[in-house]
Records
---
Amino acid sequence: MPDPVTSPSQGAFSRVVYPSLTGTRAASTAPTASSTASSAATASAAATATLTHPVPSAESVRARAEAQGHAAGYAVGLRSAEAELTARRAALEAEFADAQARLHQHVAERAVALEAAARALDTRTLPLLADAEEALVATALDLASAVVGYEIAASEPVAGDDPRGGRTARAAVTRALEGVDPALVHRVRLAPSDVAHVEEAARAAGLVVVADPRLRPGDAEAELATGLVDARLATALDRAREALLDAAAVPDADASTVLDATGTPYAAGAPHGPGTAVPGATIALGEVAS
């Protein structure tokens, strides 16, 4: 292969020029003195020729240095910002956790204070409510007693006229005989003013009615062979008052409370339903018939 020929070019660059193969072949086939001399010169130049690279200018070197410095500074700043962001995030999370813990503690303290205030309010208001309820019940019973007294007074005959026809006296007898076998009744005690209103009807029904000065108008007592049925209005109102005011009243209590001769409630489980007589006992009815 022919040796390359180096020729100068523009600037600081050098170019390697390879001789034409055709010319080389022609020269080889027809050697001349000039070609021989040219070949010798070319060989000498090829022996001394070297490949050269472009030399960067000062401006390009400075631009490259600035770019590298900018990239390095950007990388350092990015790492610094990331570290600062991580630290800031950790600080915010710690601050949020602390605020949440303080909020929970605050809510718990307020709940305890609210519960204590509610208990204090109950301690103050419940007795007042109980007193008010007791006063209300007592007032209602007093009003009921007044109404019953008015009804009894209104049923009294006026100037020989009896507009009610002895309705209160008949209601007293009905209460006394309610739930009781008439065959077991010896006699019925009434207030003297009530006897005249029911005496004829009682005689027709085979009942013995007697006057008892202890009884008030509207009261009645039925004497049985085994006990006494107390159908007095005062007894019924007293039982109603006791049932409403007694907080320890037994639930599911029967409307009629069986009392023994001393006024003590009869033993639980003993037969004392309608039509059942308890020896030596008094039945205090808890209802008032109008």
Note: Residues 5-14, 247-290 have pLDDT under 50 and may be disordered.
---
Amino acid sequence: MAVTKPSKPGKRPKNPEGRMSLKEHLAELRYRVVVSTVALVLATVGGWFLVHPVLENLIIQPLAEASAHGQKVTLTYRAIADAFNIQVKVAVYIGIVISSPVWLYQFWAFITPGLTKKERRTSLWFVAFAVPLFLSGVWLAILVLPKAVAFGAEFALEGSLNQPDAQTVITFASRLMIALGVAFLMPLVLIGLNMMGLVSGRNMGKYWRIAVFCAFLFAAIVSPSPDASQMILMALPLVGLYVVSVFVALFNDRRRARKRRNDPVFGLSDDESSPLASDDEPIDRP
């Protein structure tokens, strides 16, 4: 007589189809949120020690260079607690960047519980590419930001006192970094849609002009200065990533078509019958 081993307390038995009830989905979501939050808090604590170098290189030094060219630029705080609040805000944004490998993986792990073992292995490539792409977008914003700060400060009238609000400057800088980091993840979204069969590589290549226009439009909106060179610097990587995603999608389409030719059952849904089966064949009875 076979004896069934009792499951461990608090551990959900594996479902081969990857299906979960609403309660299990909520428990899974809570677990992913808790892990991401803990990682963010720990990264924010570490980011606190990087606040001064970050502010010095990205904000203070460019303003000092603008002052050296004859502009009187002074960073101001509107309230007594603004200096502390700004440091906390910068530490949180640093924590978001540092903990990005953790929360990106947790996000992907939550939305893919119903995938097969092979698909889950493939999904790990999402995190492997998402992290460097997100950090590349942040790095591009870091390259553009100092020149943009100095560029904006030089527009003050001669003899006037330029006193930018520290809260406004920090908020603008952090939003620019997050926006470019997220924008660099768009190729992964397109490739994911292609792998799910929602968009083909041929259609992606067909609308390349619209993609290029959207890339330059996005760069023009988030560009911190009207300098055309900075807009081009921000748009070209986005265009390049789109081109790469088109080639990856075309390769995946060819691979899927080749597999469909070799295996007629490939790509059929659960309610479709195989073309190898014939309704005219007699049914064997015992």
Note: Residues 22-164 form one domain.
---
Amino acid sequence: MQIYRKIVNLALMVSPLLVAGLASGSTVGGGGGGCDHVTDGTFTTPGEWSCSTVSKSIFPQAVLYADQGVGVDNNLYLMYDYTGGTTPSSFFDVFFEVVPNDTDYLVRISSSAVLNPPDPSQPDLSIYEKPIGITAPIDGNGNFIVGPGSPWETLLPGDPDIASGQFKGAVGFGTSPNSATPHPMAEFQLTIDRSGTGGPSGLYSPDPAFWGASETSGASGPSGPTGGCSAGCVDPPISSGIFQLNPDGTTTVTPVLDSFGQPEQQGSAVPEPGTLLPFASGVFGLLGVRRLRQRR
């Protein structure tokens, strides 16, 4: 595991050179650290995602914001602004890894999700887990299969990860700073585990890890290399990248793209010789970090 972390850290230093022009990331700047976030699925205030610690990553069809709750609380906050969407969402899927626990998590946030849902086992916020390295099946619409025969295990009330993660999520629809045309968006938050540095405990490890997100609605924007997606077609992933939580409260998001320059849906942190991250050009594969599972 230590070797894996060192290789990923090296990859994070050089990967921005390999994805320039395909997807971009930066800090937003303006204002001091410690944004006040409300996980309600909208840009609640003009300054909610504009303080100096916020990371903003631009993908072909979406803009991803990430912010640590440094100085305010112990949460990681995310905003998925799906500017390529045209109709309200049925749900958003958020996929992420907790590398030290060798666990993948899938959080499905439905359009009925409300602010701070009291019970994550409700249909509007469903949480699943599986071991890292096992590819999760995808259905014909591009969604994760979570039913019988799937490697995903549903987390039920009373599971320690439910209490530790304190998951919250919400889906919205409307305009945003990135598009004046109404479109889907979602917000998500969970706790960060800072116990290794003397801080509070939580679920998500600061170790570099893969995150991906996808959205499902009646109609979507262009899908993969073909474009022209219409109602009933495959819903594409909207963002994917390696997250690194920095001690200064900022978050580095290194985009992960497939050979068509589109986001990946899921990833594996199991190193495999000669098979590595397929960033758009494929050059990043030379670092030997991991193999990302191509979406179907």
Note: The helical segments are 2-18, 160-165.
---
Amino acid sequence: MTKLDALAEAIGHEDAVKPPNHHDAYFRDVMTISANAASQLRAVLPKEIVTQLDWRTLRLQSGSFISDDLRSRYTDTLYSAKLDGRKAFIYLLIEHQSTIDKMMPLRMLQYVVDIWSRYAEEHPKATKLPAIIPLVVHNNNRKERWTKSTELTDLIDLDQETLEAFRDYLPHFRFLLDDVAAIDPETLRARDVRPAVLLMLMLQRSVLSAPGLGPWLTQLLGGLLGGLSPRELRALVTYLLRVGEMSTKDLEPIFEQLDPQAKEVFMTTAEQLRAEGAAKARAEECAENLIQVMTAKFGVVSQRTIAVVNEAGMSQLKAWFGRAMTANSVEDVFAH
């Protein structure tokens, strides 16, 4: 494997765990905090599951089970916990699209099987598989509720009579659904979850460019900002600045009015985002220049090479740019 091949493979691995958009990044920032996940799960899981789960054992697990071609649509989080004294998993998938995926029961079953397969590989002496509780959180700012089935058997192309006759020989699977998009705001605000979870659910079902957003946001944040940790507050500010159409200047007085300490985190985060944006712009310009130099010297540059260049940091780009001046091939540029 060449150095370029290794770099391309590393990028593919990073893409497999990196949230594809700001909505999903915000969801993961909030829901990868165990206390937040516990409050959301307690609010939506059936009571018989809530009472039997040992919440003290709730632990975040690594990895994602979503295929690359679907990462622009979904993000997922996996937790483990003791259920009735035995190890179990809770698998959360967030769906932000307003177009409902009618094949979701099949997709969720695939992810559940993937989790079992990984467990079996990691525990070769195991004789049984852990229970997995699958939960889809559906949310969008168009308030379009979930309209498709959560049952796998509803996807089977058989008439009802034949389906009943063959039911024992077909896989039985159903996922739990938290249809946030269908819940009215007052009911959602009354949900017994931690402030960071409530803010995330409310913001992701709202249009953050609507007229009068400032007063609405002030009312929503009132009483909740004080319950956020610095990490949660940074995630909130990042989401508002990246997704909403309110500028730093618009948002600053809201945070100052509601919580002076929150304003400090807000200003620090806003400055970090500005610096990141400027650094990204410089790196993009350097990457573009490097690709132009390689194209002029070596001819057509592959898409794989372009992907590697576009993902690199400034220091790496500068090193490659220097080598490109004397290299005899594209491979020589990335040889060290």
Note: The two ends are 13 Å apart (CA to CA).
